Amino acid sequence: MNRPLDAATAAEIAKLFAEVVIAPDVTPEAQALLVRKTALRVLVAGALPDPAAAGMTLRSLAGAYLLQTRDNGSCDRAALKTVTRRAPSADEIADLVFAFTVAKHVKSNAIVYAKSGATVGIGAGQMSRVDAARIAAFKAEEAGRAAGLVEPPTRGSVVASDAFFPFADGLEATIAAGATAVIQPGGSLRDQEVIAAADRAGIAMVFTGMRHFRH
Questions:
Q1: Among residues 17, 39, 84, 149, which is most buried (max CB within 10 A)?
Q2: Contact 44, 26 (CB under 8 A)
Q3: Could you list the residue range(s) of the whole structural domain that residue 11 is in?
Q4: Phi first, then psi: what are they for 44, rounded to 5°?
Q5: Could you report the per-residue pLDDT of 163-174, keeping only the tens digit for each?
Q6: How far apart are the C-alpha atoms of 102 and 98, rounded to whole Å?
Q7: Share of the chain above pLDDT 70, in %
Q8: What is the pTM of this model?
Q9: Whole-number pLDDT of residue 10
């Protein structure tokens, strides 16, 4: 949670299988509801750190450590560059910014489909970006069937890629899934091929000029 856990939210969580809940604070009413679930741990984290603050991250390697600055970048709508013939609509821009924010926190290679302010498919931790796109679409299709939807939730969605598309095939996989707009950093040697594929499909694409890459 990114805000204090209240009783109404705790009641919904209690309906699910969850092992850990982390929140800045927990109301006594919420605590009373969740204490009945013996397998659930509730951790009170206190104030959350500023996500835009500078900092360092530490990763262990074989016999060494990698110390690097943390990814504290955020997507600036004013800095988005439309590179296709069709520009995204206002609703698509809102979902694109949301999807790119989610992609920042997904293991690379990351592809995130979003629709109406919610994620509908996530592909994470793949060595191939096209595989990440296909896995995200497959998981969304599975979830759609389970929810009784008449079509996969990726139809009419937008998609975010945490890094550029090195080839057009990854983008084409998202188009096949039904995405209508794409957000990505740009910067590939084959950007023009990727842009041309988007134009052929009539979808919108914006570049952020900023790459996320979570390992």
A1: 84
A2: yes
A3: 7-44
A4: -95, 115
A5: 999 999 999 999
A6: 6
A7: 100
A8: 0.82
A9: 94
